[in-house]
Amino acid sequence: MDFAAFTRAVERGQPPPVTLVHGGDHQLVADALDLVTTALFPDPSLVALGREVLDGESATGADILRSAATLPLMTAVRLVAVRRAQALAPEPAVSAYARDPNPS
Fold first, then answer.
1. For the packed helices 3-11 and 26-40, what is the interaxial angle rounded to 10 degrees?
2. Three-class secondary structure of residue 86 per DSSP
3. Tens digits of per-residue pLDDT, 74-95?
4. CA 20 to CA 18: how far, in whole Å?
5. pLDDT band at 104 (very low <50, low <70, confident <90, very high)
6. Helix ranges, 1-104 (H)
7. FRET pair for 6, CA 20 to 30 Å: which of 12, 27, 33, 62?
């Protein structure tokens, strides 16, 4: 999916359950996270409850899976973002999760 299609899906309220946004334009990557955050949490006070941002340079696949499996608390959905995911070592469990993510 290209960035324009991603943007349209998010604006329709239908963001993909798992999305890999990558590229050399760091502002575009940050804009994608802001876009999906605003769409999922129109009330900014809910962002702290429903969004978690991990860093691929320090998080493990197990950390990401644990965060992704955590049910939403006081929000309808949960957003787990991983910055610098390219730093992660390949992990079959993360790939398996991406094929069948937690619906919430």
1. 20
2. helix
3. 999 999 999 998 899 888 998 8
4. 7
5. low
6. 3-11, 26-40, 47-50, 61-69, 92-99
7. 62
Whether the pLDDT of residue 103 is over 80: the answer is no
Contacts of 97 (CB under 8 A, 6+ apart): 18, 65, 68
Reading the block at residue 99, the tokens are 């094929």
Compute the distance between CA of residue 61 and CA of residue 55 in angstroms, rounded to an integer.
Answer: 11
Two tokens at 40? 């999922």
Task: Give 38's strand partners.
Answer: none
Q: Which of 30, 28, 50 is nearest to 40 (CA)?
A: 50
Token digits for 49?
A: 């409850």
Alpha carbons within 13 A on the beta-carbon side of 96:
7
